[in-house]
Amino acid sequence: MSLFWPSLSDSFAPARTMIIAEAGVNHNGDRQRALQLIDAAAAAGADAVKFQTFRSDELVSRSAAKARYQQLTTGSAESQWQMLRRLELDAESHFILQAHCHARGIAFLSTPFDLPSLSFLCATLQLTTIKISSGEITNGPLLWQAARYGRRIILSTGMADLAEVEQALAVLACGYLQHPPSASAFAASWQSAAGRQQLADKVILLHCTSEYPAPDHSINLRAMDRLRQTFALPVGLSDHSQGIAVAIAAAARGACVVEKHFTLDRSLPGPDHQASLEPEQLAAMVQAIRTVEQALGDGEKRATAEELPNRALVRKRLVALRQIDKGEPFTAENMGCKRPGEGISPMDYWWWLGRRASRSYQVEQPLAETEEETER
User: Fold this and answer.
1) Sign of CA pseudo-dihedral 33, 35, 38, 43
2) 39 CB contacts (<8 Å, ≥6 apart)?
3) 28 CB-near residues (< 8 Å, 6+ apart)
4) What is the bridge-based pairing of β-strands 48-53 and 107-112?
5) Interval 193-241: pLDDT, tens
6) Which fold has domain 18-296?
7) Handedness of CA 57, 60, 62, 68 (dihedral sign)
8) Of 365, 340, 369, residue with least CA distance to 354
9) pTM flag (> 0.85)
10) Of the CATH numbers 2.60.40.10, 3.40.50.300, 3.40.50.720, 3.90.1210.10, which one belongs to the domain with range 308-373?
11) Per-residue pLDDT at 72
């Protein structure tokens, strides 16, 4: 299944948010659990399910310590390399998972963490979209090669400032243009109209806070606006907060992509389970985002078809508050505003004050005067 590709637009036309269910390594290296994760993501209504593709020997040195959140969830006795070795998926598993995604009608995505894995995803699995994680935003060789494949790229920007995002985009532009990599080529590609067009056509930026889970005060959703304004690219959110509120708010702020970790069971051992949604929460998030999309509308202020039947009932019209005889002037004592609203608008109230009635009125009878019929 291919992903639809959001585009940046100045219009207020309703847009569909691409929802990526991030399975990541929550399969714990178990192919059967990975298949169950695909089933859960499809049942929840996500557009894509994303895994992580890596070779531990290419990704991390054997002496590297675990991140703080990894130590909290999996202990510190083993190294990061040892942990990742247990979480690798082999090539055969990737083929099986991709086929299962196709059967379930959900797009298969994966994040490469090394050049051989990137080559496998692009050249062998023939993925048209590649997700680049926040940790790789300074990995120039990976960025350049990913763009050189011509693939669409979703780039997470966690831990980065605007200058680092710009540098990464310059490398991508250079790769898309098939220019040999160098500092001068990066700068030239970034400044060229052709390079900018390639980025506009093929890159989405994701705002991200790279902590697991990310405290609410660290999310800074307004940074999505800054990314959009600075780089004129579609922007979404890779959400590591707890719960679903932030993801829903991101959709309301115009996120074209929302990515969220999920698991079959938050109590399972592993580095990411505790910061993930369970299937019921994932389904609730998807439904809430779809509701937000409908509620956003097109930005035009007008009475809707649903409101029109109510307008006549809840608005008011000018009526006689007591009996008014023909020739009697309209006053604040004998003329007022009451529902329903079909008739002379109360906005004309002051125009009618002091004018004489051309006919008589009973109590609560709506005024039916015309300007020609009345006089001071």
Assistant:
1) negative
2) 104
3) 86, 87, 268, 269, 270
4) parallel
5) 999 999 999 999 999 999 989 999 999 999 999 999 999 999 999 999 9
6) TIM Barrel (3.20.20)
7) negative
8) 369
9) yes
10) 3.90.1210.10
11) 61
